Amino acid sequence: MAQPKVNVPPMKDLTIDNITENTILTNSQCPDQRLTYLMERLVTHLHDFARETRLSTKEWMAALDFLVGVGQISSDVRHEFILLSDILGLSLLIDAINHPKPPSSTEGSVLGPFHTHDPPSIANGETISSDPAGEPLLVLCTVKDRDGNPIEDVKIDIWETDSSGHYDVQYAESKGADGRCVMRSDKDGKFWFKAIVPVPYPIPGDGPVGKLLGMLGRHNWRPAHLHFMFAKQGWDHLVTALYVKGDPYETSDAVFGVKESLIVEFGTVTGEEREMYGVNEGCKVLRHAFVLVGEEETDSLRDRNAREALEKLGRRVRLVEGLPVPDVD
Amino acid sequence: MAQPKVNVPPMKDLTIDNITENTILTNSQCPDQRLTYLMERLVTHLHDFARETRLSTKEWMAALDFLVGVGQISSDVRHEFILLSDILGLSLLIDAINHPKPPSSTEGSVLGPFHTHDPPSIANGETISSDPAGEPLLVLCTVKDRDGNPIEDVKIDIWETDSSGHYDVQYAESKGADGRCVMRSDKDGKFWFKAIVPVPYPIPGDGPVGKLLGMLGRHNWRPAHLHFMFAKQGWDHLVTALYVKGDPYETSDAVFGVKESLIVEFGTVTGEEREMYGVNEGCKVLRHAFVLVGEEETDSLRDRNAREALEKLGRRVRLVEGLPVPDVD
């Protein structure tokens, strides 16, 4: 790297009281206004955290080593920093900020670290789980707008664990994608598939995040759920999940994902359904209607929420493409 | 992991406005009061950061991927999270909080990511650098208390780059420790060794931290310096460095380490010194006296600073072994 010209204001003798403003000043050389604002808030909060806790050198070192561990256990199929974000409530918060929901639309939930980008495409009626120990579940869904009109050709990602509570990617020896698929809604907004009844499961406890939960005296269980992700041009991207009513972890999800409106009860297939979908008598059935929101409506709601929140915080910023940047005179 | 009993207060329907208090409540199951306080402040600042920036899903994901990268490039000889802490001004702040300095004592500076734990022990007068291209430097030091009394048998770590600005551990093919040593002060508090004149150098630019500096429009250079670390039972641990006067990066150190009191000028050896230390005519010499502070004095100063700062912040905490914990009635 060539030795660049020095163009920062002179800095020397930095102390507890002036390090923050000087770090922010140095970072304000950044040509990207949004990044400048992100760094200003990051440095302020990071330094305030250290000042308020009088963070010891030993704790600082332990935290940095913890973060190295979180990075090093991560891989193509395991994102331990997403897991960390999940258990700190950050993932829920990010989803709530970015995907505000007007009344009668389907609420969002946490993505989690186990979504993959290459699940098999299936047609309506196919089976997503090959687990013979799983209890069969017929899933009959529609996807609509807020006026009740069906939305066709929505790309839907679905993923769940096997009956032992593990996602396919958690097995050391990969047997290929299982318990996951991508499908598309038909012209009536319908999609249906065969799955297994989801079970509660612990999020990975063998890494730094599991160890942290242990130190905090927290359990690492998630209530039984099925993940869904909806994508179609012009509609707000929806990441959500359906939770099974009565689960022992319904009100203590390790990653804060449960919402009352996302809790479902299973029924039993009718005779007509048995015949139509080729399932056995007594098979459990999940019937659910998802409601998407138009992208413009979400964008305008998000902007309004941002303006209101930032005004309340008394911050001198303006929104550019929905995101705050410093309001420099 | 056995399925533990659920013992958290019921949580559901978490939102932008209630996720923080609920995450803190869940974490307050922690049996360790100090960790409870650290997590309370961490979660508060992390969530406030997201709320104030209206952090987008894309930015959140980019940040988590960045952190994975920081972890994955780290190794036994490269701690990229220390480097990240350094360029964010956090390392300087942590040192300032933990090692407050009374008047006339030697100030601290950043440790940096290149200290190692197994440098060779050398006796007074030995050479720490094998680099033939380096300009020879004779270093004559003493270590004293604030009253000017010598302190003997202090363990001193010293490390510097070679003349190309690289530490030994930065070479892919290790040639063993070079440019570093550990030595002990003699009964008069003296220690002396032969080194090379330090040069300015860029901190590693090939990892995520270097990339971030580039995005921020910041250079990644440190002014020329020699690292020193002093350890002796009963004395406050001192991590510091001496900086060369007139360096082009004297007032823009990428990691905020420079202090006026740590800037030194080199002299030229006297005839007597040439004979005594076996160096050539015209050899540069660095003469410096380091002043350590008693551990009790530092502890009491740190406690006083902490109490004053926390009182000013209006925080309901008390100090346990010098560190704030929640003040629960």
TrEMBL record, chains A, B:
GO MF, any single term: ferric iron binding
UniProt entry tagged with the keyword Oxidoreductase: yes
Pfam assignment, any one: Dioxygenase_N
Organism superkingdom: Eukaryota
Intradiol ring-cleavage dioxygenases domain span: 129-272
Gene3D superfamilies documented for this protein: Aromatic compound dioxygenase
Location of the Catechol dioxygenase N-terminal domain: 32-104
Keywords assigned: Dioxygenase, Iron, Metal-binding, Oxidoreductase
SUPFAM superfamilies attached to this UniProt entry: Aromatic compound dioxygenase
Cofactor requirements of the protein: Fe(3+)
Record bears the keyword Oxidoreductase: yes
GO biological process: catechol-containing compound metabolic process
Family statement: Belongs to the intradiol ring-cleavage dioxygenase family.
PANTHER family according to UniProt: DIOXYGENASE, PUTATIVE (AFU_ORTHOLOGUE AFUA_2G02910)-RELATED (PTHR33711), INTRADIOL RING-CLEAVAGE DIOXYGENASES DOMAIN-CONTAINING PROTEIN-RELATED (PTHR33711:SF7)
Protein name: Aromatic compound dioxygenase
Source organism of the structure: Glarea lozoyensis (strain ATCC 20868 / MF5171)
